[in-house]
């Protein structure tokens, strides 16, 4: 059961990373990136684009899934 949960977490994380990449390469993602850079240059605040959150969430799920898989392999 632990392996199934770990594989599901890795798969969902991979899907989120892929979705983030698709959003980044789309026209709205390009516009989001440009508008974020322009706004940052105007007021000096750092901004995170929408697709970056997909990368962060997907990466976190992949790491948790791999960690869960590795811990499951060590114990049993």
What do these coordinates show?
The structure is a single chain. The mean pLDDT is 88. With 76 residues, this protein is mainly α. The chain has one domain. The longest helix has 26 residues.
Brief characterization of the structure:
With 76 residues, this protein is mostly helical.
Question: How do the helices and strands line up, and which of them pair or pack?
Answer:
Elements: H1 2-25, H2 27-43, H3 50-75
Keywords: Membrane, Transmembrane, Transmembrane helix
InterPro entries: DUF3185
Transmembrane segments: 53-72
Can you give keywords for this protein?
single chain, 76 residues, transmembrane helix, mainly alpha, 3 helices, DUF3185, 88% helix
Oligomer: single chain
- From the N-terminal CA to the C-terminal CA, the straight-line distance is 12 Å
Structural class: mainly alpha
Q: How would you sum up the global shape?
A: elongated
User: Strand portion, in percent?
Assistant: under 5%
What composes the largest sheet? none
Number of folding domains?
Answer: 1
Global Rg: 17 Å
Low-confidence stretches: none
Quick one: how many beta strands? 0
N-to-C series of helices and strands: HHH
Query: Count of helices?
Result: 3
Percent range for helical residues? over 70%
Q: On the 0-100 scale, what is the average pLDDT? A: 88
């Amino acid at each position: 059961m632990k392996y199934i949960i770990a594989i599901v977490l890795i798969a969902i994380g991979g899907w989120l990373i892929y979705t983030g990449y698709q959003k980044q390469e789309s026209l709205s993602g390009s516009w989001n990136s440009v508008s974020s850079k322009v706004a940052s240059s105007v007021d000096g605040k750092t901004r995170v684009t929408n697709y970056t959150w997909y990368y962060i969430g997907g990466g976190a799920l992949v790491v948790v899934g791999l960690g869960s898989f590795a811990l499951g392999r060590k114990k049993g």
